[in-house]
Specification:
alpha+beta; binds fe (ii) ion; five-stranded antiparallel β-sheet; Jelly Rolls; binds N-oxalylglycine; nine-stranded antiparallel β-sheet; 3 domains; Recoverin, domain 1
């Protein structure tokens, strides 16, 4: 409905819906009340329009028919496009589209320098612990990645097997040392047959690799320290202000903002890095978690909002290795070594330079036909390049969504 002030349309809708006492619609109206001052272009699977779509989806051009809440994504339009948003009353922030495949956005001063310091102090007071990836924590079962099916593992297949099983990224020279130390490669041909594989137990191999990690932690896919901040536990005005900005920026229903509201503060020291990954679980074996349960399921993160908290002296860019790569294919990418940002950051197609208070955000999933969680966007492969001088602090806020819309939209 071009030219119609959607705030007033929304108020009428809320009024009618309140009369029907529908919790779902009331939730939607509640969500909308946090974003009314922003006139950016958000889309919900092809439904374009200025404002309102999270409350009423449907017809081309915006709010016409009543519907249940839909997810929305900010439309990047084109690289260099700037959209304004009032995240703090009386202050306009600028959102710049910095990439289109995937759509990546930056807001230069999302947090003030004082707010950044405040968050760093909060994290230091809580204390940080070594970051682990889901691969490090899951039950271990090693798959031998015999990619060409010849019942043997060559150097490349062994490297991929160790990456897949332990989240550790070794060089050929490390693998040769491993063969020597564990006396595996009996004829020295750098090819491991079934018989040679049987010379070690899984436990023996695992212990050996954990020794490597201890001596050379930079070989891990993720080398950093972190802590989780729970807004309801810390009672902190900067954390509350951050939550409010996330709601305004994302224009997603408030229950999605409130559930899983905790965020991560991460510190990378020298050589700290995080190899390329997707922030949302893309396993086909597990269902996305309902927001109220986290057992035997994967957390699906619709949106990632990252904020850089300090000035990094050198390195520490956030790299998107396959951005804009028209011929991307998962297998070729994984085999290329480019996942290993510790070595191959310079090859990344797109990267974002840290700057204190700058936010970078993107959507890990598309929106499906029903206006809810769609497929993962494979182009969102990303990670943190090694910090070569100084340290790097970031905060990571994810907005998780499950396939159960009604459950996700129910109040806490
Ligand atoms: C993450 C991440 C990138 C960076 O923590 O999930 O992708 O630049 N970090 O640190
Ligand atoms: Fe990430």
């Amino acid at each position: 409905m071009a030219g119609v002030d959607w705030v007033s349309v929304n108020s009428i809708v809320c009024f009618i819906l309140a009369a029907f006492n529908s919790w779902l619609f009331l939730q939607a109206c509640y969500g909308i009340s946090h974003v009314e001052e922003h006139k950016g272009l958000y889309k919900s699977n092809g439904v374009k329009g200025v404002g309102g779509e999270t409350c009423v989806g449907g017809a081309e051009g915006g709010c016409q028919e009543m519907d249940i809440p839909r997810l929305v994504r900010l439309d990047g339009v084109k690289v260099g496009h700037i959209q304004e948003i009032e995240l703090i009353p009386g202050k306009i922030h600028k959102i710049e589209t910095v990439n289109m495949k995937p759509e990546i956005f930056e807001i230069p001063d999302f947090l003030s320098k004082e707010e950044c310091l405040h968050i760093i102090n909060l994290a230091e007071e809580q204390g940080l612990e070594v970051s682990q990836t889901h691969l490090e924590t899951k039950d271990k079962k090693m798959r031998l990645l015999d990619l060409n099916g010849d019942k043997m593992l060559d150097m490349f297949e062994m490297r991929r097997t160790i990456e897949d099983g332990f989240d550790v990224y070794l060089e050929d020279v490390d693998i040769r040392t491993l063969y020597d130390d564990l006396d595996m490669d009996t004829n020295g041909d750098e090819i491991i047959t079934n018989q040679e594989m049987n010379r070690v137990t899984f436990r023996g191999l695992s212990e050996y690799i954990h020794q490597i990690i201890k001596a050379q932690p930079t070989k891990k896919s993720r080398y950093s320290e972190q802590t989780w901040v729970y807004p309801d536990r810390v009672q902190d005005h900067v954390v509350d202000a951050f939550q409010d900005r996330i709601a305004k920026l994302s224009r997603l229903p408030q229950p999605l903002i409130d559930k899983f509201s905790f965020f991560q503060v991460v510190r990378y020291g020298k050589h700290g890095h995080y190899n390329a990954h997707h922030d949302s679980g893309n396993s086909t074996e597990l269902q996305c978690c309902h927001l109220s349960s986290t057992k035997n399921c994967r957390i699906c993160r619709f949106m990632t909002i990252m904020v850089y908290l300090n000035e990094v002296e050198e390195g520490g860019e956030t790299a998107f290795p396959i951005a804009n790569n028209e011929t991307y294919d998962d297998h070729t990418f994984r085999s290329s070594g480019q996942v290993n940002l510790n070595n191959n950051c310079a090859k990344a197609n797109f990267s974002v330079t840290p700057s204190p208070g700058k936010s970078v955000f993107w959507y890990n999933h598309f929106i499906n036909e029903d206006g809810w969680l769609g497929n993962i966007d494979p182009y969102t492969w990303h990670g943190g390049c090694p910090v070569t001088k100084g340290s790097k602090w970031i905060m990571n806020r994810w907005i998780a969504v499950s396939p159960d819309r009604e459950m996700d939209l129910s109040p806490l």
